[in-house]
Design a protein that fits this description.
Layout: E1 2-7, H1 12-27, E2 34-38, H2 45-51, E3 63-66, E4 71-74, H3 80-100, E5 104-108, E6 112-113, H4 120-123, E7 129-131, H5 142-151, E8 156-158, E9 176-179, H6 181-194, H7 199-202, E10 211-214, E11 219-220
Parallel strand pairs: 1-2, 1-5, 7-10
Antiparallel strand pairs: 3-4, 5-9, 6-11, 7-9, 8-10
Helix pairs in contact: 3-6
């Protein structure tokens, strides 16, 4: 299995985070290397949207109800172009997963390993996108998310429902996860049907089947 960390090249904080991520993985004696995957930057957004015929449909301000999905959308904080760039970075890795026809581990640069991760049991599971991150401090209603996972049986838990099903229900932050080719195709199909959204919103169980999390957490932020 290949592992890829999304890193903004030449950005001190991002490059520093990647270094700490690699050190934490080595300290846990993980048996895989983590590739430095060049993040999309805002200057490339317009070109990539054109190249891949993408459209952004998530609100940049306020909120709205999407009739096609029956989901309520609320704007994220921060400059819109940075959100587009982050989503595009994940999108390109989903395409890479499909093109190579093999599972990959996707990490954002602020992840660190807290346990040794042997991915084979995740790869062998029937799930298609599996979060490995501690949800605490990584998602809304994080304690409820954690409590559901903690109470569930088995080493892999279906993605928890933590509130109203009109709100996208996905893995915690979508910042550390294994994705398989079928899962990547399902998410990309959702992107072309509904538009590109923040990665942790489009990868939701209302639109994408096969989402799960490991009961043992392997990374934190």
């Amino acid at each position: 299995m290949k592992a890829h960390a999304i890193v903004i090249r030449g950005h001190e904080i991002s490059e520093g985070g990647y270094k700490k991520l690699c050190e934490s993985s080595e300290n846990m004696r993980n048996e895989f290397n983590i590739n430095n995957y060049q993040a999309v930057v805002p200057d490339l957004v317009a070109e990539l949207f054109k190249d891949f015929n993408l459209r952004w449909t998530w609100p940049d301000t306020g909120g709205r109800h999407d009739k096609a999905t029956n989901l309520k959308m609320h704007a994220y904080g921060g400059p819109p172009l940075r959100r587009y760039a982050c989503a595009l970075s994940h999108f390109l890795l989903w395409k890479k997963c499909i093109d190579t026809n093999e599972p990959i581990l996707i990490l954002e640069h602020d992840a660190i390993f807290i346990n040794k991760f042997d991915p084979q049991y995740v790869i062998d599971s029937d799930y298609q996108m599996i979060g490995i991150n501690d949800p605490r401090r990584a998602t809304r209603l994080d304690q409820k998310f954690h409590s559901i996972v903690e109470a569930a049986e088995g080493p892999i838990v279906p993605c928890p429902v933590i509130d109203n099903m009109q709100v996208p229900q996905g893995i915690a932050g979508a910042s550390a996860y294994v994705i398989k080719p079928k899962g990547a195709q399902d998410i990309i199909d959702a992107v072309y049907e509904h538009g590109l959204w923040p990665n942790d919103a489009i990868a939701c169980q209302q639109l994408v089947p096969g989402l799960a999390v490991t009961k043992k957490y392997y990374t934190t932020i």
